[in-house]
Amino acid sequence: MAAQLQEHIAKTVSLTNEQFAYVLSHFTPRSFKKGQVIISEGSRVEEEYFVLSGCTKAFYINDETKMYILQFAMPTWWTSDYHALYSHDKATINIDCITDAEVLALSNDNREKLCAEMHVMERFFRLRTNKGYVASQRRLLSLMNNDTRKRYEELMDQYPALYNMVPKHLIAAYLGVSRETLSRLYNGSK
Amino acid sequence: MAAQLQEHIAKTVSLTNEQFAYVLSHFTPRSFKKGQVIISEGSRVEEEYFVLSGCTKAFYINDETKMYILQFAMPTWWTSDYHALYSHDKATINIDCITDAEVLALSNDNREKLCAEMHVMERFFRLRTNKGYVASQRRLLSLMNNDTRKRYEELMDQYPALYNMVPKHLIAAYLGVSRETLSRLYNGSK
Prior knowledge:
The structure is a homodimer.
Chain A: H1 2-10, H2 17-24, E1 27-32, E2 37-39, E3 47-53, E4 56-61, E5 67-73, E6 78-79, H3 82-87, E7 94-97, E8 101-107, H4 108-117, H5 119-144, H6 148-158, H7 162-165, H8 168-175, H9 179-189
Antiparallel strand pairs in A: 1-8, 2-7, 3-6, 3-8, 4-5, 4-7
Helix pairs in contact in A: 4-5
């Protein structure tokens, strides 16, 4: 399982095996069952999660009980309520498991400790967040532009396996479209 | 002018005066006139900008010639096409000046040089991007939720002076609403 994290970090920065073992010692493995809640709105958020297997969703339910999906997280993706995590505030979103999931949890304190002790890990986390920021800005733009096909294509580019792993109504909730529109997009793209 | 950058960095990390002077030597001052283009769609992007005075807008115009505003940048804000900057790709958005503007330009190469040489600057840029990521996620959520009032309030919280500095049709384009809806929001919030 640790090999996945090692490979993931190696795509961005170089660590010796000893350095990686030290980094890994700051993570805690956790297992969740399908449907289990990882973060719930209003709770304290102390950790972020590197997904090893399975799939999670970060979502928000508004006053009219409509669900908005902010992010799916698949193996080698990170997930948390980053607003709450970074600002030591209460969660404003929920994260739960679409399937059984194995993750490596990293606490705020341990991430900051690693970043303070190892310049190379500060670099890793800087470059990781840069990618997240850019992805978020692109999604914002396609959402403003109401370009459903682009949002669909971006999602499928990011994770081609998603369409088979995630129930269709959740993909529709991510895109902000009806299931009928999603079917049209899917059939149009084949 | 440099004092603004020094204060801005000091909110996140501590630098000695000597360290700051070294950091500053990697920036280039630039002046732009009202309406002048800083980044245009399709061009190469080599720099990001720390705004000292004035106001810029990052925007995208779709096929139907409708304008979407991704970001305003005011004094002490950073702006660029970060997708293009980080991935050495061509710009997919435009940035121009709403008013005359003074900025400090930092090239990709100089930022990476500073980050490699100074752990403390790697930290600064990591924490800066963390904030940007969180703001972007929150805007995404309020956009998905179509909560215009919240988007308006978030914008006014971020920069209270905006309403008087920026033409109303641009604020409306940022929020994705008509000018009439914007007036209602403004009058409702007084």
